[in-house]
Each structure stands twice: as C-alpha cells, then as structure tokens.
Amino acid sequence: MRIMIDPKTPQARRDFLKAGALIAVFPAILSAQSTKAIKVGLVGCGGRGTGAASQALNADDYSELTAMADVYQERIDESLDTLRKVTEEGVLFRSHLNGDQHLFTPESTIDVQMSLGSDIMMVLDECLAYPATHEDAAESMQRSVRWAARCRARLELLRRTPADVTVSNPGQAQFGIVQGGVFSDLRQESADATVAIGFEGYAIGGLSVGEPIDQMYQVVQETTARLPRALPRYLMGAGTPEDLVECVARGIDMFDCVLPTRNARNGQLFTSVGRLNIKNAKYAEDEGPVDPACRCYTCTHHTRAYLRHLYQAGEMSAGALNTLHNLTFYLDTMKRIREAIQLGTFERFRQEFLRSVSSLSLDS
Q1: Alpha helices, DSSP H only, in 171-314?
Q2: What total of structural domains would you count in the chain?
Q3: Same structural domain for residues 272 and 318?
Q4: Which of 1, 230, 264, 280 qualifies as a cystine partner to 323, CB 3.0-4.6 A?
Q5: How far is the CA of 66 from the CAs of 52, 54, 70, 121, in angstroms?
Q6: Cα gap 149→176, rounded to integer Å
Q7: Tens digit of pLDDT for each residue in 75-119?
Q8: Strand, coil or helix: 91
Q9: Distance between the two ends of the chain, CA-based, in angstroms?
Q10: What are 261-297's pLDDT values in tens digits?
Q11: Cα–Cα distances in Å, from 278 out to 24, 104, 282, 306, 363?
C-alpha cells in the first residue's frame, strides 16, 4: 500500500509540512537517529518538506514519519514551556542562548513600540496552539482582553504625558486583537470586549495555526461581522493568495504572512496560473520568465533557467529574486482586489481568480 500526499487532503499536507518544518527549525531536540529517519521520510515524499503534491509514500513510512513529527512537536512544546511563562503580569521569557530572563508586560510592549515609532502598534496578546480546549481558550482570551485594556491605558497616558518614553511617531495607531480559538462564543465575547475598549483598528489573531481552512473562514466571517466597518480589520498570519481573496470577501482589509518570503527561499513561486517550483529539473533550460503576466524585476530580467541555477548553486540572490517576485505577486493581487471593489466587480474577480490561481502546483 502507498499513500499519495495530496495538497487537497489537509491532514496529510499538514503532517508532511509539519515534519519538514520541524526538522528545519528545531534540529537539536530529537536524537540524530530520529532526525535522520525524518529526513529519509521527507526525501521519500519528494524533498524539502514544502510544496510537495501527489508524491507517493509507503504507508508504514508515512505513519512512522507523522508519529515522529508528533513526538517532535511534544518535545518542542515542553522546551517552550521552559522558555516562557505566561501570567497576569505578562510573559517572562528565558533566552535560549544564555538563560537571561526578560519580562514583557502590556505596558512595556507599548513603550517599546512608541519608541520604535511604528505606524501601527499591536497590543500584547496570547496566541494558543491548535487544538485547544474551550476552557483554555476562554482563559487565554479573557487574559488577552485585560492586557488589551492595559495597553490602551498606557498609550493614552503616554499621549498625555510621555514621561521617560521617547515618542517618535505621535500619529501611531493602536490595534486591538480578537482571540478565542475556533469557538464562536469566545470570538464574539472577545470582539465585543475589544471594541468596547476602543482602538484605531482591529485584528483577528490565533488563526492559520493548523485549523481546517473552512473553519478559519467561518471564524473570520463571524468575527468581522462584530467589528466596526469604518475601521481597518486585519487578519494576522494569513495566508495563501486564495486566502487573501476569500477573506477580503468576508470583510478583511489587511494581512501579514511569512508565506511569500519563506516559500520564495524554498524555491516556490506564485504565478497568475498557479505555483511553480523553480528547483525542478524541467526548468534547467527554460528561457521564459517566471510569470509572463508579471512586470517585476525578476520576471523582466531573469529566466526560469537562471533562477533555477541560482537556487541549485545555493546563491543568496536566488532567495532575494524569488522573494521580489512573490511579494510583487501579493501586492498586485491586493491591488486587483481594490480595483475590483471600486468597480463593483469583486465577485466576478473572485471567481476568476480562484479558477486561475489554483492551490495545486504547476508541476504536480
């Protein structure tokens, strides 16, 4: 028996990507033997642990791989528990380098952000891992609401009397963050309490952490309905190009995500007709641009073959050029969304976009 790793199967894809991510980021937690076994499993799946589609894997190896990934995650969670402690006062972090302790409170995080002068500052909140119990999510959410009130009080105090904090950008906006996991009642409670405090904008946090995509969309839709329409609504940590369009359709205005830059460093490029894995051998002599429809520097100056050469050679410029393209694609997507909304054609754009920009790789 063999299992096909299909990106349309969320659990299989999550298991596969989780194993790849863990082996890349936390190599010291498992033994060398286990690390080697996971790497062998990933090679059997098709390589680096990102962007794989419809790759065959022996069923026994697949079960062993995902079981090791779960053990790996448990050890990471245990390790993180020794590095940070969450209390009503704030979060106490212990440096993994030298053991130094650093306390972050709602007040201290606002002081730092005011000194930095960011255009938008965020309140201190806690983002729980998925899955979490209703009880744990409620306790965490209610603490985050209390922290948000403290953050707002600190900002208003500093606006009146800066004290010993350097205010480098007096026009800073402060966003509250709605938490509550995947529980509708907790999201409603958090949204109402956060809006009652009063902020210049509102963020939805704690999503895109492993929950099914349909559940994420449902939470987004239910939560945005309780946030002021006249103020920015920001989805934190998401997402794919499809997520941008689908969440705008549900009321989101702003996003942030590591996906376009991280995937660029791993050789995956987003295009107007799907995802392209530049490391594949088929591009070794391909003289065409990454995306003929894109006018970024990468697409107008370099071929797929050259970008593949840079990636295979381990050149830093590969990540830079790939990142430039992916960010351009994301920014262009948001521009097209804005134009469609202004023209009253967003729903037509949405359907056309989802048909053309498939979540499947061009190389699957």
Answers
A1: 184-197, 213-224, 241-248, 259-265, 297-301, 304-312
A2: 3
A3: yes
A4: 264
A5: 16, 17, 6, 38
A6: 9
A7: 656 566 678 999 999 999 999 889 899 999 999 999 999 999 999
A8: strand
A9: 21
A10: 999 999 999 999 999 999 999 999 999 999 999 999 9
A11: 20, 41, 9, 10, 9
